[in-house]
## 1
Amino acid sequence: MKNILLKNAKLVLENKLMNGSILVSKNKIEKIFTDKDDLSEFVFDEVIDLEGKYLAPAFIDVHTHGADGADAMDNSEKALRKISKYLAQEGTANFLATTLTSSKEILKDILKVAANLQDKDIEGANIFGVHMEGPYFSVEYKGAQNDKYIKPAGIKELEEYLSVKEGLVKLFSISPHNQENLEAIKYLTDRGVIASVGHSVASYEAVMKAVDFGLSHATHTFNAMKAFTHREPGVVGAVFNSDDIMAEIIFDKIHVHPEAVRTLIKIKSVDKVVCVTDSMSATGLVEGQYKLGELDVNVKDGQARLVSNNALAGSVLRMDIAFKNLIDLGYSITDAFKMTSTNAAKEFKLNTGLLKEGKDADLVVLDKNYNVCMTMVKGKIKFTK
């Protein structure tokens, strides 16, 4: 493995910017230099002059279904590799391949395919696991989930999913509106899987009870969940009030009004919000007709909507655009990286998400307009322009 020096950069540290350089060696950040340090005693195999560009922890997307014409539900390594390659172009170095509500047989097959690629050196971003979105949801808030597969949770079925490969399923979206699903949440969290409230008709009280059972995440906050009102705080109210819940947000300015995003961040703090894309296969492609799992989707004016009822069906959002939207809303570059990288890394206990010596060299280079110029995954350059 080569020693690579990324020099003359504006380093985005956890709470400040610093002019300096980073030495990458053996997949890791070996050393961080200030612009005052003498580098003459070091030997480098390659030196890349970043000419004052930002160097930061690469993005992490824990909720993405697909991109560039490929979908995790395609049930093929080829599709996952294609998604991986595309995500590197948007500055993402780690992601969870995200499933949809489907039959047990199909979901187990998809888990087996993902297991073969988990944490492998592939074309682009690293697949660090799977996010299972469903099938234990509320039909009333199905969104773009296929309701013919929605059902109460079963422990035996969960055992089958988790036994495909230990440590593969990292995140499980579920609605805590009945006892079976509450017990499933405890079963999942006891086995190290993060349980997330999503597509849920559950009451405020039911969600807070689910937190006692281990629930600690919210799937695309505000979307496909019982809303906040002054008489029934709903799922959203529980997300607001529970310090134990990390809140996902799809910040494409379509799923959630920017000022509602600001409200969420003000209530939760910049340390408890995770930006996701919920991207589908049309991401990066021209507008037209696409599929989200088994459902027909029409993409027009930057919006992906079901043909059947015009409901939003995932997004065509990229992580670099979500990042820019945070900047547009007035957040600092350091806070924007917390919500697009650091928070997810901490939540999922990944050795990344910060510019620190010993962390994985998952890095993104942005120009002054925050456009992605380079993405490095575990010390290897996967995208450059």
## 2
Amino acid sequence: MKIHQKYLLRCIELAKKGLGTTAPNPMVGCVIVHQNNIIGEGFTDPYGGPHAEVNAINSVKNKEQLKEASLYVTLEPCSHFGKTPPCADLIAKHQLKEVFIGLQDPHNKVAGKGIQKLKEAGCKVTIGILENECREHHKRFLTFQEKKRPYIILKWAESNDGFLAPEKSLRNSNPEPFWITTPYSKQMVHQWRSQEQAILVGTRTVLEDNPKLTTREWSGKNPIRVVLDRHLKIDASHHVLDRSVQTIMLTAVDDTSKHLEGITYEVLDFAQPLAQQICDILHRYNITSIIVEGGAKMLQTFIDANLWDEARIFKGTIDFKKGLPAPRLQGTLQQQQKIWTDTLFIYRND
């Protein structure tokens, strides 16, 4: 392995520490090397905090070494004032001699301007180190910038014989989830929730399961709850309207007298394709990634519109024989693993 690739791999490894906290900013990793020794490292702080390059430079004990050092970073250093000053200016200020960048930033406020600033400051800049690996790492940010929508993860659990839920006679009268998978799979789902910005469900899922859509089984932030409720059938007795988490209701009802205080409402045109409208709204809210958890109709809406990037499907051992059929999709199987007695299949939409 070439030495530049080795240092970029370390940048990616560091960057993953920001998963679930940096959005809508990208989770960037940075390494500073002096005479073949790493003298500084950093990754992006939670949103609003310092970027990876700032943290890496601040971690260097002897700042005089920076003039003879090389900086490696997964994404082009920013060149504009946002929540923090431009990273390109800080790199130029410390006169680093070389910068190796995984990817050019597609954001219209950066898009080569950071690279240009570095070159004008006398920095030698190399772009495209481990470009494919950096694109995979930055898939949420890149999807948001390039496709103008969030990175969309479809997720469901199905019985061994392909049903999302059994027929109603097999369920309790009180609304609650019917668990197909084991507690280990449930914990993994809660970990995923902590990693993504938002989670989306439909009316039927809320009325039948009364989910909380939080990260109770994992340490981390709760995702923004997004609920599709055309006629506002969901009332305040349901967990999704308890105001404990930021919640966006997507509805056809524009009568504000029926809107609850503390909940955000967005009105959709249900005569038009829904998946694209939802994506447009989420983009407006700077939501870079979302898990679509159900129900079957909601999942199929995104599948039919070809608006999805990953599908994470658990298959349990139970057989229902009849019930609500699981969605069907065409995708490339990327991963298959056992989670105790469950099997997890991860597909990508290529």
